[in-house]
């Protein structure tokens, strides 16, 4: 609708928590050569384009409730499709047992499994995952990697404040889409109208299509949540910033 190019596959295909200096340079050089009016969607941390002597792009992103992210990721690794693919395509490699695929998140947490232990300041994890939502915004500095630390989260907040045009949330689509429309109009003009045509019931309920919310006991959620204190601080910071942007737009509209 807005006549833009959408690019999904970049030059660095490995999905790791942090990229090497060489991988960052490869990404920067490649992005810098993309034609104007291109929307590039990538799974990776913030990269300092200025440090590589390149003009920085317009950064936007989304955040989600930290514990919900982990529960979703846990079950996403245990889908029937993942099991079939692993056992057919990678049959020669060590495989997870049927019991692993059937284990619930509650069982994993209550048994103290390394996969479901979220230890503050940890750098090396038993299972490498993406529990550090702040890491995507903090970048590739060594101080960004320790889990749930004040320093990493403060660095991530600073990046959001200085480098990101918009960081939306799954909680409020009307607010997120309104801010995107006004702050990045070339790419998101008419976003609400187009989205409501496709999912009219969604906007009327004031929420994005919910990623499946798995039934997890309240005490387990509370137990895990206690290990994500600083990650929640970052999550709420991003939401507050989004709301401030939205309120500023409403005030501007009223003044006009």
Helix percentage: 40-55%
| Largest sheet properties | 2 strands, parallel
Mean pLDDT: 90
Low-confidence stretches: 203-211
Strand content: 5-15%
Question: What is the ordering of alpha helices and beta strands?
Answer: EHEEHHHHHHEHHHHHH
Give the CA-based shape.
globular
Distance between the termini: 28 Å
* Rg calc: 20 Å
Q: Can you describe what's shown?
A:
This is Heparan sulfate 2-O-sulfotransferase pipe. It is a single-pass type II membrane protein. It holds the Pfam family Sulfotransfer_2. InterPro entries: Heparan_SO4_2-O-STrfase, P-loop_NTPase, Sulfotransferase. Helices cover 49% and strands 7% of the residues. By secondary structure, the protein is mainly α. The chain has a two-stranded parallel sheet with strand order 1-2. A two-stranded parallel sheet has the order 3-4. Helix 7 runs parallel beside helix 13 (229-255) and helix 8 packs across helix 13 (229-255). Residues 203-211 have low confidence and may be disordered.
């Amino acid at each position: 609708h807005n006549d833009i190019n959408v690019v999904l596959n970049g030059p660095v295909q490995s999905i790791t928590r942090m990229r090497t200096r060489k991988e960052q340079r490869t990404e920067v050089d490649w992005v810098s050569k993309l034609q104007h009016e291109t929307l590039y969607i990538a799974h990776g941390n913030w990269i300092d384009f200025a440090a590589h002597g390149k003009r920085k792009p317009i950064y936007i992103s989304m955040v989600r409730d930290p514990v919900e992210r982990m529960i979703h990721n846990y079950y996403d690794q245990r889908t029937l499709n993942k099991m079939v693919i692993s056992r057919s395509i990678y049959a020669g490699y060590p495989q997870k047992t049927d019991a692993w695929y059937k284990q619930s998140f509650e069982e994993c947490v209550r048994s103290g499994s390394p996969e479901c232990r979220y230890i503050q300041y940890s750098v090396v994890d038993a299972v490498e995952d993406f529990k550090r939502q702040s890491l995507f915004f903090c970048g590739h500095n060594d101080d960004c990697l320790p889990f749930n630390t004040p320093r990493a989260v403060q660095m991530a907040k600073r990046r959001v404040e200085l480098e990101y045009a918009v960081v939306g949330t799954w909680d409020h689509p009307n607010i997120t889409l309104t801010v995107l429309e006004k702050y990045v109009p070339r790419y998101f003009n008419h976003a609400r109208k187009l989205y409501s045509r496709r999912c009219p019931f969604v906007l009327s309920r004031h929420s994005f299509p919910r990623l499946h919310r798995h039934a997890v006991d309240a005490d387990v959620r509370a137990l895990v949540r206690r290990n994500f204190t600083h990650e929640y601080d970052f999550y709420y910071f991003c939401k507050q910033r989004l709301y401030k942007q939205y309120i500023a737009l409403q005030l501007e509209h009223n003044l006009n």
